[in-house]
Amino acid sequence: MTNSPKVYKNATDAVGDILSGSTIMSGGFGLCGIPENSIEAIAKLKIRDLKVISNNIGNSGRGLVLWLQKNMISHAFCSYVGGNPDLEEQINKKLVEVELIPQGTFSERIRAAGLGIRAFYTPTGYGTLIAEGKEEKSFDRPCILEHALHADFAIIKAQKGDPYGNLWFKETARNFSPLMAMAAKTTIVEVEEMVELGEIEPENIHLPGLFVQRIYQGENYKNDIEFLKLEGEL
Amino acid sequence: MGWTNQEMARYVASLFPSYSSVNLGIGLPSLVAEEIPTEKSIMIHSENGVLGVMGRPTKEAVSATLINAGKETISIKKGASFFDSSLSFGMIRGGHIDYCVLGAMEVDSEGSLANWMIPGKKLTGMGGAMDLVNGAKSVIIMMSHFTKNGERKLLKETKLPLTGKSVVQEVITNLGHFRPINGKFQIIELAPGVTEADCLLPD
To answer: Which member of B56, B69, B131 has the closest CB to residue A102?
Structure first.
């Protein structure tokens, strides 16, 4: 696998064919586990009208906010935008159309897309604004129908990866990333440590490389902390 | 008169049996973590993908990739585990989390809850709240009894957009412990010095 066709030189190389109008999933919870290198490289492409699926669409002026500032995003699919004033501003100015999705429904719609489930019934959102226009059906309790959420590209980050694309995530940086990797036609992974095949034990692979189309060694990670709280602080 | 925030947190913590699993919302409910006795061996779940949250890390142990759903740095206890968001919400939706504690703007006597949106005000999104209230075995609301302007938050019928319909089991406020049952708020316990009249419960 030393000549694995999946291994790309760097971020610029890996994201170069993304076009305007693409649907892109981006991993990370707030700024935890975001694909920093791919976000920066895509920001340099002259593309627009992106449909972005990401829990927060960046936060505190960082992450995907870079795309917002360049007016590259036309649609945002997310669960929480508090703490992201740039997104709020673009929603208010009607530059970005937003679909707010309950976080569990959001992650399950992505997982469903990756695993061939077309739609599913869930009690989440029943009786709320989220249920408007959706099919309802009663099981043990009333539920609403939610559809799978697909993408052209997923950009994600893992702590370790090998040339086949087998991945290992650190602590809570895993969040939506393995689900997004399954749901996109082309999954682009950046890793902090590129390791040899076999170095991640089979039992410890969090995402099999089958779901990964491109992988590269990332660089200059900031790994920003949003709210540093130490022992003794509330 | 009534309970302090810390006393409310201690009261909520006293409702959890040993070895139960608990998800704590951001804001007021996060105070509950400090009041759970270690010997109860309770597992705290955070929906971003961790079961077994312990508290704040020491300066040396801080990790940018170890956070809770409020995006704050945390530490974990022995026996903790990490997982992806789908499994995390599967734990919630599947009914495997015993309690969730959330703040609220309004709760009504049918157990319906509004805590995510005020029309015309700043948009934040519901995050995981709608999943939590429909999935956790028991939904506990922890909030101030009245708004800052002195308006009622325990109502006959909620006015704000709902987070969940008939989902709340217990309501703990600075005035006491209430339970929405058969279209009424039943008083389970009043805080010291509080009378039923003080609570202005809906008919």
So the answer is: B131
